[in-house]
């Protein structure tokens, strides 16, 4: 019945859509979202198996359309920062899920050699200037990246991804103001999953029309329903290209965080009825139904794809479990540049101080 | 080559201008750095020379100024962010301590944040509790941040030039009371090594370890002491991170007495750290406790009398040294 509902909705949405035929990006968007969903499920599994580094794992299940829809419009050379719930965004920009999982497991083979983990993952090769565990902390970096792009005339855009929680932080407004003032190629993407940890957006602001704030600073600003990844991709295309041309932008993607804040949070602060309704706003199921409905893919083709992705993501867990921990001495590495002396270990200093001739 | 008469302010300005001429990726951003020329005039007219896209006047948004510098440094610029007063550093602490300082480490060494945060601190202008502090301990307490505090005109130039070649974020704290200080300097002379302290005076009786404006008070005190037969070594640290402890150790071991002088408040401050290190590492050589001569553990007042009284001066430094040496066994 739920599937049938989704198909009916997808069909209705398609009625007026331009370019619904062969040029549609939906199959690729679906694939990206399915990979994110499955990856996040495997992150949950890694935690249950006791193989994750800690429990501060923030899953983006229910929010996949923001990552897939926006990143579909980014190019090589573009950069971005994410919040602490950013696995999906990084995957959508081309991350290797095995190295991601290894980082989440705190292993040497991870993107940051086990020093960053889920909340501080980054990869300069893919333009990922870093996930951030400080709410709003990664936002102003895109203003700096925008200044660099302007200075070096690269044509690159820089995108800050953050949650609705970050709309409570002043740094967002400082950054949007600068981007607008200097016409920088910056896009601010607010993934509004309705919750900053356990606090619903309605308890955090009197005006939940978040794009209005950005518009007030002079940015091109829209809100889009995250249920429909194509709608997200279309809005993002407009805004990203506008930003590339010097009109910075803000996009709020409305969605629902299907599960708790982090792995140990069972969201007792949420009404089960609300959760059930929220989880029905499922962008992955919605896209799947639309693909079938529009005859772009058959159910069995999609089943096959889902199985393939399942196997790909299963392998990330096997890979992670097999990897080694970082060597203890590596903890003194990378505090400063490689050519600089490493900090003296406390044990070495104690030995020196207490050495007696 | 040629000696020239420069102020501390001129030297800083020249360092910025020379760096900008040499490296087109050097940009300045901060409040009033462009048209106004900097609250203390350090960036005067740089906007005329280098344009508004390299000398960027910002809104009053300290966290985003530092945050934008972080992003710029990660993507190929060489930003110099200016914080008008070090007292505003609390506003920026997330971007400075959680972002700039930790990015290289958190990301497993993939990238550094080669930026300079220029600011100024200290007493001397009756600027009150929120514009007169010495907050270098906040910076020194954060691994990943380099910290330079020039005391002389030559160092103002050379340390800033060197800071702009460093691979890691450098917090560069000038002293507001030194901007008009003049010295004859030869800027073409070989600069001292980054991270190496300068021994500004050598004496057999005790070591005074200091930095920034207090250097001048220590030298004045040393002259007074010399007239009374006591000879002090005065070490100017120049950078607090990296910290040149080897120079401190060598002189403490030779003289057996150490005093640490800092304008910052005493408790958990730079002087506390230096004192602890000297005590730990030179314990067998010490004749006396390591004495901290520091700012009082109180806010700074706007009253000139209270302001001056709350930080060390030449008199307190000399008196303390003379008391330390009063009971010495003649060599």
UniProtKB/TrEMBL annotation, chain B:
Entries under InterPro entries matching the protein: THDP-binding, Transketo_C/PFOR_II, Transketolase-like_Pyr-bd, Transketolase_C
Domain of life: Bacteria
Cofactor: thiamine diphosphate
Single Gene Ontology MF annotation: oxidoreductase activity
CDD domains: TPP_PYR_E1-PDHc-beta_like
Pfam families, per database record: Transket_pyr (PF02779), Transketolase_C (PF02780)
Species this chain originates from: Azospirillum lipoferum
Protein name according to UniProt: Alpha-ketoacid dehydrogenase subunit beta
């Amino acid at each position: 019945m739920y599937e049938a509902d989704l198909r009916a909705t997808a069909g209705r949405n398609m009625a007026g859509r331009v370019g619904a035929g062969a040029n549609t990006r939906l199959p690729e968007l679906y694939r990206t979202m399915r990979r994110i969903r499955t990856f996040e499920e495997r992150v949950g599994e890694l935690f249950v198996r006791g193989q994750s580094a800690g429990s501060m794992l923030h899953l983006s299940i229910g929010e996949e359309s923001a990552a897939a829809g926006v990143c579909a419009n980014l190019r090589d050379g573009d950069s971005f920062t994410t919040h602490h719930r950013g696995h999906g965004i990084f995957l959508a920009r081309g991350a290797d899920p095995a190295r991601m999982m290894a980082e989440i497991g705190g292993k040497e083979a991870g993107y940051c050699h086990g020093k960053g983990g889920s909340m501080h993952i980054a990869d300069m090769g893919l333009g990922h200037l870093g996930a951030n565990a400080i709410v709003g902390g990664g936002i102003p970096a895109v203003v700096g990246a925008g200044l660099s792009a302007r200075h070096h005339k690269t044509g690159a855009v820089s995108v800050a991804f953050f949650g609705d929680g970050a709309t409570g932080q002043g740094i967002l407004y400082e950054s949007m103001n600068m981007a607008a003032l200097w016409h920088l190629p910056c896009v601010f993407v607010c993934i509004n999953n309705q919750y900053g940890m356990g606090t619903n957006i309605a308890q955090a602001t009197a005006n939940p029309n978040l794009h209005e704030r950005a518009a007030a600073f002079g940015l091109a600003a829209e809100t889009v329903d995250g249920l429909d990844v194509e709608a997200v991709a279309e809005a993002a295309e407009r805004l990203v290209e506008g930003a590339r041309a010097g009109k910075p932008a803000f996009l709020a993607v409305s969605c629902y965080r299907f599960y708790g804040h982090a792995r140990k949070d069972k969201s007792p602060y949420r009404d089960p009825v609300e959760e059930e309704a929220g989880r029905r706003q499922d962008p992955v199921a919605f896209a799947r139904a639309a693909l079938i409905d529009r005859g772009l893919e058959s159910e069995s083709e999609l089943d096959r794809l889902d199985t393939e992705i399942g196997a790909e993501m299963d392998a990330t867990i096997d890979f992670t479990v097999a990897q080694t921990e970082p060597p203890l001495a590596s903890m003194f590495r990378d505090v400063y540049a490689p050519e600089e002396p490493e900090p003296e270990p406390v044990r070495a200093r104690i030995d020196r101080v207490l050495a007696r001739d | 080559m040629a000696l020239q008469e420069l102020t501390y302010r001129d030297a800083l300005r020249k360092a910025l201008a020379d760096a900008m001429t040499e490296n087109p990726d050097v940009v300045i951003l901060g409040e009033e750095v462009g048209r106004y020329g900097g609250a203390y005039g350090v960036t005067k007219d740089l906007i005329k020379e280098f344009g508004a896209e390299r000398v960027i006047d910002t809104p009053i948004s300290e966290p985003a100024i530092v945050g934008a510098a972080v992003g710029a440094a990660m993507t190929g610029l060489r930003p110099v962010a200016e914080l008008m007063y070090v007292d505003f550093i609390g506003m920026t602490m997330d971007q400075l301590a959680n972002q700039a300082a930790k990015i290289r480490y958190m990301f497993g060494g993939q990238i550094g944040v080669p930026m300079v945060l220029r600011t100024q601190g200290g007493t001397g202008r009756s600027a009150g509790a929120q514009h007169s502090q010495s907050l270098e301990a906040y910076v020194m307490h954060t691994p990943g941040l380099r910290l330079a505090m020039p005391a002389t005109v030559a160092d103002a130039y050379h340390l800033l030039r060197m800071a702009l070649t460093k691979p890691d974020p450098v917090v560069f704290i000038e002293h507001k009371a030194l901007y008009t200080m003049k010295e004859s300097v030869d800027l073409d002379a070989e600069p001292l090594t980054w991270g190496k302290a300068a021994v500004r005076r050598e004496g057999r009786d005790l070591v005074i370890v200091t930095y920034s404006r207090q250097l001048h008070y220590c030298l004045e005190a040393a002259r007074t002491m010399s007239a009374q037969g006591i000879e002090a070594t005065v070490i100017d640290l120049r950078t607090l991170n990296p910290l040149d402890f080897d120079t401190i150790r060598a002189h403490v071991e030779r003289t057996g007495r150490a005093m640490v002088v800092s304008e910052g408040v005493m408790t958990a401050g730079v002087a506390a750290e230096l004192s602890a290190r000297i005590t730990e590492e030179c314990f067998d050589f010490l004749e006396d406790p390591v004495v901290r001569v520091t700012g009082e553990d109180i806010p700074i007042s706007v009253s000139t009398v209270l302001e001056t009284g709350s930080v060390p001066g030449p008199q307190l430094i000399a008196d303390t040294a003379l008391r330390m040496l009063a009971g010495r066994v003649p060599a």
